[in-house]
C-alpha cells in the first residue's frame, strides 16, 4: 500500500471527484481530501509511479495539482484511525492537538488571567437565571403580537389599495375631462380690460 500526497486542489473538490480522476489510471484504495490537499492510497509502487507520471501538473477545475510520495509518518495504511493526524497520539483528535499552532482553544485557559480553568469548563457558570428571563420573554411575546397585528393590518390596506388602483381614473387634460386652460395672452387682456 502506497500513500500519495496531492496538493493544490481547487476549492470544492471532494474525495469522490478525486477518486474518479485517479481511477482512470490506477486502482485507488482510499482517498481523503483535507481542505486544499489530499492523501490517496494506491495498491503498489508501480501504481504510485503511474499516478505521479499521468496526473502531476494535471489541471483540475482550472488549478494545477501536484502529486508526490507522501512523507507523512502517520496513517501509512488506509482506513479511519482514531489517532491524531498531527502528533500521532490516541489521547485526542486532530482538532484538539496541542501541537497545532492554530488551535487557540487550549491556550485560552492559560491566558484568561486568574480565572480557574474549572470555571471556564463549567457551562452553568455564566448561565442566566430563569427568573431573569421571564420579563424578556413577556416583552418578546408582546412585540410578536403587535408585529402580527400591524402586519395583518398593512396587508389588508395594501389589498384594498390594489383593488382601488385597478379602477381607471380620468387624468385632466389628457382625455378631455377638463377643458384646456385659456391662453395666457387672453388672460392678461381680460385682466387689463376688465380688471
Explained architecture:
- This protein has six helices and six strands, in the order βαββαβββαααα.
- It has helices at 15-23, 45-55, 108-111, 117-121, 130-165, 184-194, and strands at residues 2-7, 28-34, 37-42, 59-60, 63-64, 66-69.
- The strands form two sheets. It has a four-stranded antiparallel sheet with strand order 2-3-1-6.
CATH topology of the largest domain: Alpha-Beta Plaits
Pattern of helices and strands: EHEEHEEEHHHH
Strands, total number: 6
Count of individual domains? 3
Fourth-level CATH superfamily of the largest domain = RRM (RNA recognition motif) domain
- Radius of gyration from the alpha-carbon trace, in angstroms: 38 Å
CATH architecture of the largest domain: 2-Layer Sandwich
The major sheet is characterized as: 4 strands, antiparallel
What percent of residues adopt helix (DSSP H or I)?
Answer: 25-40%
Physical arrangement of strands within the biggest beta sheet: 2-3-1-6
Terminal Cα span: 112 Å
Q: What's the number of helices?
A: 6
The proportion of strand residues reads: 5-15%
The gross shape turns out to be: elongated
Runs with pLDDT <50, length 5+? 106-112
Structural category is alpha+beta
**Mean of residue pLDDT values:** 74
**Main CATH class of the largest domain:** Alpha Beta
